Structures
1.
Amino acid sequence: MKKMERWANLFLIACFSLFLLGGMAVCVLREKETYSFYENRTLAPMPQASAETLLSGQWGSDMEAYLADHTAARNTMLKADTWIDLHILHRPVVNDVVVTEDCLLPFLTDWTEKTKQIPADTAALTENVKEVSDLTKSYGGLYYYVAVPCQYVFHEKQYPWYLENREDYSEKSVAALTESLQEAEVSFLDMGEVFAQTGWDPALSSGVDNHYSMQGAYLTYLTIMEQIHQDMGKDLPILSEGNYRLETLPNPYLGSRSRKLLELVPSEEKLQVLYPNEPVAFTRTDNGKQTASTVYALPQTPTENVLYSLYMGGDIASTLIDTQREELPSILVYGDSFTNAVECLLYYGFDRMYSFDLRYEQEKSLGDYILEYQPDVVVCIRDYESLLSTDANGGGAYVSR
Amino acid sequence: MVFSSVVFLMFFLPTLLVIYFIFPQKYVGLHNLILLGFSILFYAWGGLRYLWLLLLSVAINYTCGLFVGEGHSRLIRKIALIVAVVANLSLLGWFKYAGFFAQTLQSVGVPLSVPQIVLPIGISFFTFQGMSYVIDVSRSDAKVQKNPLSVALYVILFPQLVAGPIVRYTTVEKEICNRRTSFSDFSEGVSRFLVGLGKKMLLANTMAEVADAVFALPTDTLSVSLAWIGAIAYTFQIYFDFSAYSDMAIGLGRIFGFHFLENFNYPYIAKTVTEFWRRWHISLSSWFRDYVYIPLGGSKEGKRKHIRNIIVVWLLTGFWHGAAWTFVAWGIWFCLLLLGEKFLWGRFLQKLPAWVGHGYTLFAVVISWVFFRSASIGNAFSYLGAMFGIGSSHMLWCEDSVYELLQYGVFFLLCAVGSLPLVSIWRSFCTKWEQKGGVSLLFRIWVPKFFVLGVMVLSYMKLATGSFNPFIYFQF
């Protein structure tokens, strides 16, 4: 018995020592990544030591954060932990994703307090949006504020009864904003109404990502174009039925939810791209530099993952698509990432399409751009979650600097 | 630095083990120097700024220790003892309580500015530990340690430096100068350390998610069930967090040849509050018993003084935990219960079935943790109101309760099971079945080893996927 105990003790000591020393060796020797794909964030950099940071303990904290981000087998452990939560513990929420039968939804925090703030938030947003609208109208332009249901709104009935789906907030915020913008004489397009008329067709939204599908983007594009056509009284080229073809990419689609679950929940969903049957030539300039004349960042191979950033190449500070058709009006688009898929279609009907992501803009304001380019149409696209937000994406807080 | 961090597990500990064990065990002095150096590094990792305080504390206790021992006049010994106690308590008082007292006085109209003082990590622990050395020497319970490095090692030894247990000098007096680590010691130390790591990473941190979420909600929105879920989650969190640290400290001590005393003895199986306090944070309760309660007279000077002594100890115990009225209220709660058991309902309680005692104790303890966790006394009472349906919500159930149970139910069960004396249950199971010829020696010896290795892997998994996770008792 003693001999067996001794062997057992030695075995345990050996495993423990191997774990410690092996872990240290891997931490030191492995090539350091700077970016975590699954978490979509930059990993902590190696901290620089200084007298101040050593005295205060900040260096120690930063070093711990750095090592935590670069520890041995981190990605493997992330996958193992997620797999256990999904398949052994069967937790309803894994990595902040609600796993339902049909889709992966975001885990939503309670917005009871935020719902109480709707009147104040609506008033603040209306003031900002009206400023942009008035600025646009001042030189004869048209302005539209477009609200698009994000994934959790689309699938709010899919949430388990005990989880928050923000139905109350979504309904009240849209109703409040509709009324407020109407009073302020700002053109407001609520895509929720349009999607509702289709019976909330699942094909319009993604089951694995926050955004809509290309079909949802197309319906949004169509709604905007029809409104512009109506208000402008001008025939603009529109990608109506029969004028385009929809291609489904064979690549696996890694939506934001499935990315959070480290691709451990398989999905058959694919991304689609829409091509006009009669293409229009254009030049594209991103952040002042000319780039490839394409609106899609297509994958190199049919097997690599595609992300929502397929559309327009993701969020870029400023983009200009120039189709050299001076007889057509110009358009300026801003808002959150829901603009990207729509921009792939919008350029078709305009001479120039300006697109701004004001989160990256340091020098000029939205108002500066509008005055500089005087686009004939200005469109803001926001999803329901950030509908009343006056952040940089909304542009409203930065009308004039 | 915390034990459950990559820097400790992957760098500090392996480096220390290699350097320490590379030298033969007969070089105790060298081993002590290595441990002392690494312990200073361990503390300084949190900031060099307060290292001077730790070293000052060591210097005070070492110097006073030289004069409180036999061989000096009674007067000198008394003065040295007073200097040690006053100096230690002054340091603790300034860094931990000055801001609190200033704020309290300010709130009643006294024109005082509130000093912004950063609480040095572990000050409550190393101050009490240092004081206990001087007091034990003055009582001739321990011999004067003339080697300052040995006193420094006793106070600064990293396993128990920042969150206990409060190790008495007499416990480690001999081992500081003469110790050996056998394979069995090392293995048991590793097992204990890994069990502690598992308790922290798998149980305490998970319960913290529940407790933090529920306690963050406005109390008027809490249903009865959700309030209880939050309170029970915190009950588990604090036990597994704190006992985990003690396990890891004891395990690490064992690896290096030190045998610290147990700090927790399955407190949640207690049948009375009195028994609970013999099982919870044993090193602290025994410290107050030996250095406050007994010197005040204990139970030997009449009922009135007995009650007074209990009140003093429990006020101090509450206060030791934090500079806030919630901790004082927590101490008062237990004081009332202990007085009640001693003088009112104790005997009646003993006659009741065991399950009644368990239920009563757990109920009292869960209530106490609400005070401990709450941000203010008002908040604590508001939370307690929600637990008993007195709050505004008046709801028994809510969707959040269902979510928390579905999301964390397995962990609540694991915590409930983990609160039981599993080691003794396992041993008696093995003994029983061995006698019946059902369990082989192989099973009895190897299963625990593989169990702790499994815990190690799962704990590392949580560590690699988590972020910084400070222990609760660091704030003391």
Note: The longest helix of chain A spans residues 2-29.
2.
Amino acid sequence: MKKCFVLLLIVMSFFSCDDDLVSNEENRLFDSVGFLSNVLTNHILPEFRTFSSDVVDLIEAKDAFVVDKTIENLLNFRNQYLVAYTSYQSVAKYGLGRSATINFNQNLNTFPFNLVELEAFVLSDQSKELTSVNTQNRQGFPAADFLLNGLADTDEGILAFYTGENGTDYTQYLSTVVDRIDSLSEQASNDWEGTFGNEFSSDSEFFNLYVNTYIQYFESTLRTMKIGFPAGVNTGTISPISIESLYKPEESRGLYLEALASSRLLYTGINEEQSSLSKILINLGEEGLDARIKIAFLEAQSQSNRLNENLRLQVETDNNEMLLTRDALQEVVRLLKVDLTSKLNVSITFQDNDGD
Amino acid sequence: MVITYLNKTTKTAPLAVFRVFFGLLMLISTIRFWVYGWIDSVYVQPKFFFSYYGFEFVKPLGNWTYVLFAICAITSVLICIGYRYRLAIILFFLSFTYIELIDKTTYLNHYYFISILSFLLIFLPLNTYFSIDAYIKPKLKAHFTPQWTVDAIKLLLAIVYIYAGLAKINSDWLLEAQPIKIWLRTRTDFPVLGSLFQYQWVHYFFSWFGMLYDLLIVFFLLYKPTRKMAYFFVITFHLLTHALFPIGMFPYVMIVSGLIFFDSDLHEKIIIRIKKIVRIRPFLESNIIAPKTYKYSKIYHKIIAGILVTFFGIQLLLPWRYLCYPEELFWTEEGYRFSWRVMLVEKVGLSVFTIVDSDTGKQFEIRNNDFLTSFQIKQMSTQPDFIVQYAHMLRNHYIQEGIANPKVYVQSYVTLNGRLNKQFIDPTINLANEKDLFAHKKWILPFYETIKGL
């Protein structure tokens, strides 16, 4: 037995000698830590910073509106809401760490917004907290969308809700919705800026989880929730009210395109020098697959550009374009989920889970 | 010659040691499975189970599965200490095999190995030495045993290794170093060896070494002058694979099983060592009765001979059944299981099912996670027999939901050993009407390539 150990040690030391010769990290064909730290510094942190600052502006706009309920302040509030909702599209794909434990995405963007017994809900105490799981579909951006765009047909009509009989309750609810967006964003953002960000960018174990999260976001949120559900892919019946930004439907395509572009950029990388999934494939000699994925992304984008900016209208008038878009996204899913994971030896730990 | 061989005897110690370690490892792996929460996630949670062809009568037991595992654990202990051995090993074989038959999603070559090994062990006198049984019933005690009882275990191990080696003689494994290449090149963070894993030659080295190891190791273990060196290789090889790949307890099973090739001296020493560690006095002093050879009764001997000849005959022939199927084995997986094809393919698939209501023409896509666990989805996506079984389950489900004639279609794409994904199943075939038989499944699309080799 002792002999065995001695021999084992010799073999080990032989390999470790060799190790010194080639352990130059830069030269590695596959460097998961380098990749993760690049994702953190060039994608996650900048995107979260933009989002956080947009949320700060949103809070200010909200405060101004609460103090002085004028049409002008409403319009400004609405404007800030859209800015924040747009930058949210980029950070939605990082459902890891604290974002996962606080259900960042479920709380911020579960749509469609729940209209059942709304008035009673607004008047209840629940609407002043929004911390319960049952209220996931009564808060976040879809709730803000409803409260800023959907309460009435005209701006005056909407304003009347905040100044009328139950005005205090509606104002309070709106305020809680925005404050909660702020507090959840702050928690997620601090986590990435602090401990979790450090762990994430220094431990190769996160590579698997990261790729899984990325593909899951693309499949479940981007493909299924934003396009598949409204197009009725899983039911056979179209569901126009399942679109994002239902109460200002002309913004729905814009938000979706933002999410798609940001996902694509995360795949390709911001520039040539940085590590990215694309770069990793190229380094491993898988240029063919990389090219296919890039083409599939471009085709998905160009098909998506053919959609009406109002996805509700698109579904109601010509759902076939929605189905074509969905197919184009599915092509990306297929390459990512089948080929990319296989080539990178990433085992899929979820399978088209819809995050519900 | 056969008669003289059958009359040859050897010390019983190797069998006793084998029994002790086998029981111990089975206990550990049962506990491990339990502690990881896998009983729940694999056997209790799923709503649907993929039965083996011909074993549809094996039903999931819900929470009673825990009882089955408890039986496995208890019998493992009994096997280890050699108490009521025959009953224990029979119960172990039955409960373990029942668990395996519940859902083929969990099929692993090494679970199959445990099943057939425990079947073999039913017929061997593993409790005649260094066991409670022999202590209680001194008449049972035997220092010697027919040589073939030890050799039977060696033969089973030889079949496992050599068939695994033969299966590696194919162009993907030897000429492309696949799937080893895919598995190693992203493991650059692996301690010590990691930085080597990016080199092509390392992938080829692992592939060729693995093939030669599997083919030859048994011969080096059988040949006394090379035995120690060979066993050192067994330890290194299996520990390395254990560190690199998620293959659970299998490496330990093989490391411990390899001991059977050593002379009885080593096993006697192990037994003395165990006795010192365990310190059960009466048990220690049970060596007084004169040496004796275990003898099977005549009738029993004949029956066992018949069973074991059939058993090994099946083991030798089963791996070749793939030759009866057209098309590429790695692609269709027809005749793939139960053949020691270990770590040969890296497959990932995506299978999206569509239900079409024949009466209304309405169609919609299935979300697989409404019906299957992610583990089941993963296995189902790349294996045609799973796909058709699942399609039938969907058909039945939607008939209950009120669709009189549901048609089931699948868009299925699979990647094999680093090739770009290809469409796997004919998307125009209504799987609701296709049967899951042993016959070749014509609705599997061609692979359009050949992987040369056995």
Note: Residues 346-433 of chain B form one domain.
